Structure formats: C-alpha cells, structure tokens
C-alpha cells in the first residue's frame, strides 16, 4: 500500500497541473506547465507498473509455500478422520477417564448413589481401574448406609411424634412411605404392629379414665373422654364400651337438662342459651331438644339484652322435659 502511494500522488499532481494549464491557455507558463504535467503523468504510470509487477511476483512466490502448508494440514485432518474408533478412544483415554471421575464425584455429592455406582462399574470395566473402582464402591456403600440410617431415624422421629399426638392415620401413612422409599432398610418390618399397639394402649388408657370419671360422678369429664375415645376406636372395638357409653350419654343428657332448667329459672340467659344450643346440637332427636328449640329465639333476645315482644313464650315458665 505504501509503494502505491508515491505514484498515486504524482499522478494526481500531474492531472492537476494539466487541468490548470488547459484552463489558462493564454498564460505564458501554460505550454511548459502542460508539458511537465504530461511528463509527470507518464512517469507516475510507469511507477504504477513497476509496483504492480513486484506485487504480482511476490504473490507467485508465496503460492507454493501456502499450497504446501495447506496440503500438510489436509493430510493431518485426513489421518485423524481415518483413525478407527478404538484408536480415537486410546488417544482420548485420559480425557474420558478424568470426565468419568468428575461425574462420579458430582453424583456422590448429589446423593445419587445408583448413578455413581454405574460410573464405578464403567471405571473398572472400560478403564481397567479395578482398585480405584473398589475403593469408590466401598465409599459409596458407606455413604448409602449412612443416608439410609439418617432417613430411617428422621422417619421414626416423625412417626413417634404422630403417635404421641394420637394421629394414627398419619403415622400409618408415614410408615408406609418409609417402606416404599426404603424397602430393604432394617427396623421397618414391625412398624405397623407398633402403631397398632400404641393406638390400643392409648384407647385403653382413655377408657379407664372415662370409667373412673363416670364412677366418680364427673359426667362432663366422662363425656369428653367418651368423645375422645370414639376417635381412636376401630371397627369391632366399640362393643366393649357400649354399656358404659350409653350410661354416660344418659347421665350427660340428664345433667345438661337440669343445668339448663336451673339457668332458665335463675334467669341466667347467656348460660341458658349456651346450654340450650348444646342440647339441640348433641341430642337433636329427643323431646327435650324439641322443647328447647322453641325457647331459643326468646333466649337469644334476653341474652342480648333485648326485651321480649308482648305475647312471647316465657322461657322461664317451665324447664324442658328430660324424656327422650
């Protein structure tokens, strides 16, 4: 590019002088100026030819060298393509081995022990690293045992918490989930029996408390325990408490009826309203509930402090019947 700059400038100067001489034909210097411009143009064109000739000569000299280099590269590519798969595998063996090791560590870190063991098998069978494969296999087995023990311990802790709360259904579901996830884990075979035994012990304890409360005349406590016991009994177990359950229900119904009558007689309207609603809710199919239901609108008005309209049934006129 630098070689072309001189002839180009000379050619431009010659053209400029020629134009100037043509535009001023009457000037004294017009003829000499035009002659010089023509001569300068010829010289510049000659220099252009010399520069282009040298450039072409250099290009012809480089072509053989470039062709030889290109042929060498093509030859190497052809040799690589012609390699067999086995030869390529040998060529990149170390790279593949490093890749397998890296993937193995990633699977172990992620807790994917099955995938890690598959890579261990590949490490021994395809790369001949038998000792390394066995070391990693022992390592993975230890990690897997520790993981199983941890998960079993966490699952058992959850089950114990559910048993303490009397949630037998959730405890059974948690045990079933452990069995599905860890079918070969030790210590899970007797979980169903443990849950059933815990439920039975809990229900018997509640039943004993309920019987004691009824015998001691603590009817409200006995009724509360009866309702709680009902949540823990399964089919076939309720027959053993039928007698005491009926006695508690009758005693509780009579008690709440008397308390309702006393509250009405003493004009304790909020208490009477609460007891009346309890009667209609807990014993809806009794005659007492029917009578109380008729009094509830008046009781609500009086409990809220609103005077009863004239002609309204007097809630304190008589206590409800205790008959069923």
What does this structure look like?
- This protein has twelve helices and no strands.
- It has helices spanning about 1-25, 30-80, 85-90, 95-110, 115-125, 130-165, 170-180, 190-215, 220-230, 240-265, 270-280, 285-305.
- Helix 4 packs antiparallel against helix 5 and helix 5 (about 115-125) runs antiparallel to helix 6 (about 130-165).
Q: Please tally the β strands and state the result.
A: 0
Shape: elongated
Unreliable sequence segments: 59-65
Percent of residues in helices: over 70%
Radius of gyration: 53 Å
Strand content is under 5%
**Structural class computed from helices and strand pairing:** mainly alpha
Pattern of helices and strands: HHHHHHHHHHHH
Biggest β-sheet strands, sense, barrel: none
What is the terminal-to-terminal distance?
Answer: 121 Å
- Report mean pLDDT, rounded to a whole number: 78
- Total domains: 3
Count of helices? 12
